[in-house]
Amino acid sequence: MKKKWLVHLLAVLLFGLLVACGGGEESGGDNTGSESSNENGTEETAGNGDGEQKRHAFVFKNTGNPYGEKIMEGFETAIDETGGEAILRSPDQPTVEGQIQIIEELIAQQVDSISVSANDYDGLQPVLTKAMNQGIKVLSADSAVNGDSRTVHINQADPEAIGRTLVQAVAEMMENEGQFAILSATSQASNQNLWIEWMETELESEEYADIELVEVAYGDDLRDKSVSETEALLQSYPDLKAIVAPTTVGIAAASKVITDKELQGEVLVTGLGLPSEMAEYISNGVSPWMYLWNPLDVGYLTGNAANALVEEEITGEVGETFEAGELEGEFEVTESDDGVEILLGDPFKFDPDNIDKWKDIY
Amino acid sequence: MVTRTIENSQPFSWKRLFLQWEWMLVLLIIAIFMMNSSISPYFLNYTSVTDATMTFLDKAFIVFPMVMIMLMREIDISVGSTVALSSVVMATAYNAGLPMILALVLCLVVGALCGFLNGFLLVKYRELSAVIVTLSTMILYRGIAYMILEDQSAGDFPTWFSFFGWGYIGTIPFILILFIALAILFVLIQQKTVFGRQIYAIGSNPTAARFAGVKVDRIKLIVFTLAGVMAAITAIFLTARMGSTRPNVANMYELDVIAMVALGGISTAGGKGRMLGAILAVFVIGYLQYGLGLINIPAQALLVIIGLLLIISVTITNLRVKKRK
Amino acid sequence: MLQQLNLEKVSKFREVGLLGFIIILVLVIQLLNPAFLTIGNLRDLLTNTAILSILALGMMLVLITRGIDLSIGATLALSGMITALTVSSVPGLNPILAILLGIVVGCFCGVMLGLLVSKIGILPIIASLGLMNVFRGLTFWTSGGEWVSAYQMPDSFKNIATSSILGINTLVFIAILTFLFFYYFVNTTITGRQIYAVGSNPDSASVSGINQTKILMLVYTMMGGLSGLAGVLWVSKYASAQGDTASGYELTVIAACILGGVSIAGGVGKVTGVLLGALLLGVLSNGLPLINVSPFWQMGIEGAIIMVAVLFNTNIREFIERNNRLRREI
What we know:
By secondary structure, chain A is of the alpha/beta class. Chain A has helices at 2-28, 30-38, 66-82, 96-108, 125-133, 159-173, 190-203, 223-236, 248-260, 275-283, 295-310, 355-358, and strands spanning 55-59, 85-89, 113-116, 137-141, 152-155, 178-184, 211-218, 240-245, 268-271, 290-292, 321-323, 330-335, 340-343, 348-350. Chain A folds into 2 domains: 49-157 and 295-348, Response regulator (Rossmann fold); 159-292, Response regulator (Rossmann fold, 3-Layer(aba) Sandwich). The longest helix of chain A is centred in the N-terminal third of the chain and has 27 residues, at 2-28. Chain B has one domain (41-318): Orthogonal Bundle (ABC transporter involved in vitamin B12 uptake, BtuC). In chain B, the strands form 2 sheets. In chain B, strands 1-4 form a two-stranded antiparallel sheet. Chain B has a two-stranded antiparallel sheet with strand order 2-3. In chain B, strand 2 (168-169) and strand 3 form a beta hairpin. The longest helix of chain B is centred in the C-terminal third of the chain and has 27 residues, at 216-242. Chain B starts with 13 loop residues before the first helix and ends with a helix. The two termini of chain C are 18 Å apart. Chain C is mostly helical. Chain C contains 13 helices and 2 strands; from the N terminus they run H-H-H-H-H-H-E-E-H-H-H-H-H-H-H. Chains in contact: A-B, A-C, B-C.
């Protein structure tokens, strides 16, 4: 008898859980939800109805990534300024499959624009094409998709500039002589691979004749693997003078190993990383300086570009310009290797003088 | 109809029918539909409801053989890697000049081989458990996929190939039609054939089944190979949805599949549960996820909700089983 | 009596086989890169393996009772995150208290799982799969998607992982303590023996008056506590707490146990074997980057080696059993 009651109780609880999820969200999303249902919105394509709030979605690589959170924060600020509604989504794992599912859900909601920081260069093409066919504006930001699956790409910094700057930086640190290694994220990360290609191109130049890139290791953006890989680099190449890691987890893990082994000054670390993660190691001298762009600005520019596309201020033709809220100057749509892009600017240099200011911001 | 195919000595009664777990799942699906349409204006229309199936059915093909495997008290955690490997081989072979039709066949063959190897090792070395065998092949298969494609992606498939992931027959997604066809087939195999009953027999008592003349080894080999083939079918649909592939696709698919099977009421402790339950569970999880996705719920909240749903519903099944005892 | 002796011999020999395999592997790596067998590298290897072996010991007990715990990676992340958030807002917190806090959070997670498994009778694989999702979600929730970075943690906390006790790195020291405790616990205490009894035959165990619920609760709580401990050590070692810390790590831990001869079917498993299993994985993750193979081949090689190790062990065991049988017939 008692058991039977427990069964019923749990069954009620289960339904309660479902209804509670539903109910709670219903009151939250009321204004947008009921409004469009009144207009029996299923037949309408995105973007009509003048007074209606525009809805712009941003899909990041995965959840719980502070870099992505900052991009989305910037995106939301921009959308709020234009009076639209920002929808921020990301799958719990950095997978293409998760992003496809989310984009399908966004298409069903008939959002006005989708901006995506892709987990794969090609893998989102079918779903993004579907979105564009339904009149949704598609942008990529931070991590690009191929030219056929987007209108524009918001480029945080020129990959060529990033690659070349990193080599110039490491050459300066090593005084133009010696061995260095690269510690990347996963071997599948298209961003990182592109930067590494440009680094290799820059290294072909005469002035780096005495510099040798000994290995490209992959830490998979996992702390434990990045640490093992760094330790292996130090063991295999006792004369190693520098490590370049164009990824936050990699650069922080490498710096942590150098700190623990008390190799400050003997092996130098540089690359791309979040100031908050790297503050400790820039202050203690393990990394003399490193680079990154402002993820808030990346998101902010993306939000403005998305709005400009939806409001038809720009259409994605080369040469068009638009203003991005509080960001200085005009931004221009330019030709890139594959499709068109909007460039944010040069990467920013973080050194002991400015790191304390930035570490609390992102 | 299907729910009644189970042999029962007692006469049919409505009360018994309603006590079945499958009914609970049907009610859950109804509840989820009601919830979804109340929270989102974009849910309750034909396109949305049918298109949603395209987002979650690809991995659901593995649910069929996984039910059989778990009924036999085994498990296969290498299926995600099998998906990746067969997808990568298919794409590489096509890019190397193999006609697409043959590449599809090759994909199925690779999947079958992966599954066969699992089954073979299990049968050959009886003291090895399925966890250890499939854990090592999980790393191995994905490792081979990495060796083949390294840091590249492969794709550029002919346009008709995208039909698998995105095509419709009439207005119904192709994937849904195939899934339902296979679902009917597997339900019949599981409940109507000798083969299906033997799987239950192995699950409830492997030793007794062996003595009763059930060819345990052969059945295990068949079922694990089948898991490989179904993983390859998943690979075809998944690859078509992405238009290209990489060695890191279908990561952790095995856990999603196991969650669906578990929610379907299949108990790994020996031969309890039905194919139909797992099939319904696919739709429960799929539509729940889709509906909550339509109101843009954060991924972490989704994790918590799916986790709680799994625990609470399994708790209910367990209490019912205890009560009947 | 005779049979018992043989079984003893077999399981001893199994570990010798595993040890032999590790030695062969070490020699091969050493041949390919002489930097492998240096004091510095061995220290790295042990430090990196410490957390894995602590978790593997707990998992051994779970597996012995025919259970499994897939939630440990998420438990580790949750307790690591809560501890990191605490020390970043209370920098003066004694490191010992931080460790205790982590253990308490972990124990709490373990108790939840233990209740579901022992009181309600949900299969461990499903209960822990569900809780894995819940704990992982809670980790993202408590942190609000942010990470806790190195500069936010006090030095006293980061020193947990870098300091040494009696000349041994603290992580390794804690792992050794855990090992000694478990060795004593499973081999000499009554409760320890009861865990094996529950695993090898639950029915006869309950007939002989063993409180199965209590044993299961104990096992899962210990596993949770160890995951909590590992969470603090992890965060202190890498000086960073992320929401996705140790995602998928549970499979590595289970692999270590199974390589070490613990049977998923329950009742079988030795502390020394598990330690060797963890060591094998430690050697692999430390050694593979050292030998000059393409990074794309690493995973395939790892999989092949694990498979060979498993089959090697199995064949040796079958060989011995056949020999024993033959001897008996003579």
